[in-house]
Amino acid sequence: MSSQREQAILRFHAARPGATSRALARGDSYLRLAALVASGSRVLDLACGDGHLSRLLTARGCTVTGVDLSAAELARARALDPTGMYVRARAQHLPFVSGSYDCCVCHLGLMLFDNPHAVGAEIQRVIGPNGTLYAVLGGGPTSDGDDAFHRFLAVARPFLGPPPGTWSDAFSVAADAERWEVDLAGSFDEVWAFLGSSYQLAPADHEHVRELTRAACADFGAEVPLRVVMFLLRR
Q1: What is the Cα–Cα distance from 72 to 18, expressed in whole angstroms?
Q2: Which tens digit of pLDDT belongs to each residue from 161-176?
């Protein structure tokens, strides 16, 4: 049985398929993740969403299977990439034989899964003892500074539910994770594409918090600063 958290995430993606790639494609996180994978590899793209990363990997000569639980995201992925392989499945029960893949990639998904130990075991099973996991993990705003992320949190805090989880909940890999900052500055609408994709923000509050954030960022002018902390995991 899925958790309330998982149901909330699925509702978000049903309403806004492709929101994650639209919010982050302007940064370098997808490209950085794809660049780690050797051309010709058999790749499992876990929590593939609308297939943005899968398409980048296919263009690099990889054989890719995208897996997601959201039917809406997979429908968008198939529409954008009719020849791609996209499978609806739970990360805790992957429908592939052991050793099917050379590596697994996961862009901002590990911290969202229920039963992370089962997910980790399934990843290890399908990539085999010599396979590698490459993952981008969310780290939130920078620890200091003044940008749209900090101002969003200040005005949105009363409307935010509990966080969906952190990467350390899923895998205790602090020593293996490389920290970097992604610059997502742009127009307010471009910045809001990222901020408004928070799973903690209820749909009923979305437009109200958007306008509160717009007002809080008005003095930035046309170019709104936004920096996001991410971690790159190799395991």
Answers
A1: 9
A2: 776 655 555 554 444 6
